[in-house]
Amino acid sequence: MFLSIDVGNTQTTIGLFGTDGTNLMCWRMPTLHTDTSDSLRSRLHGYFAMDGFAFDRIEDAAVASVVPVLTRAWLRCFQRMLGHDPLMIGPGTSCDMPLALQNPKRVGADRVANAIAAVRTYGAPVIVVDFGTATNIDVVDREGAYRGGTIAPGVMLSADALFSRAAKLSSVPIEAPEHALGDTTEKAVQSGLVIGAAAQAEGLVSRIKAELSIEDATVVGTGGLARTVGVATKLFDAIDPDLTLRGIRDIWLWTREHEQGAQ
Predict the structure, then answer these.
(1) For the range 115-118, what are the long-range contacts, defined as Cβ-Cβ under 8 Å and sequence gap of 24 or more?
(2) Taking all residues of the chain, what is their mean pLDDT, rounded to a whole number?
(3) What is the pTM assigned to this prediction?
(4) 2-89 to CATH, choices 3.90.550.10, 3.30.420.40, 2.60.40.10, 4.10.1110.10
(5) pLDDT value at position 263?
(6) Among all residues, which ones are annotated catalytic?
(7) Fold of the domain spanning 104-246
């Protein structure tokens, strides 16, 4: 079995894949910057035991992390578990997709993983909107090249800033209201956060499509709040929560095949 690990600033997502590429299970846990390799290994043991998987059947793993201190912790964790290094995917990691950017070595590994998995699943052109700590839009053009995208504050980041700075506003459930016009404070906040995120995505995707002449591009939503925002818009052709994890595995497969071919 294979493990894909996507370490974000707020949440870490873990995907367990069978030898045939089937996604067997996904787990989400909070990203704690104080985690050690031992605590990470303990958490993995717990998830496997909880859902009845054999921990010793893990053969390999790949990690995409935007938290440097946890990158090292995950590396040590898998070194002890596997007896060898996992693939650590970061900016500049080689992949089988052209990166048509001014500085391709600076693009986040999770964004490239999204793009690769999206092309393999939906074809090109394709646009991915990833609702995480940040809301990222990643774009692959008609020729299959990654062209970049946009980065904006995520829904929860915006909510935390709003509730901490506006004394008279209290935390509300993050869900889509029925109407954009809120007739209570709670609904007004929900409209601003959720429908606002949907409208932002609609506007940016529309402009990107026009700029690249890819009006027929498939639009895919992913990330922890993709389903929540998806209720408030008809923008998405698909909601694909496991997209990043599959992309991490795709990069690992390509890297393994590339290394074997070079031998």
Answers:
(1) 115/139, 115/140, 115/146, 115/247, 116/247, 116/250, 116/251, 117/240, 117/243, 117/244, 117/246, 117/247, 117/250, 118/218, 118/220, 118/240, 118/243, 118/247
(2) 92
(3) 0.91
(4) 3.30.420.40
(5) 54
(6) 110
(7) Nucleotidyltransferase; domain 5 (3.30.420)
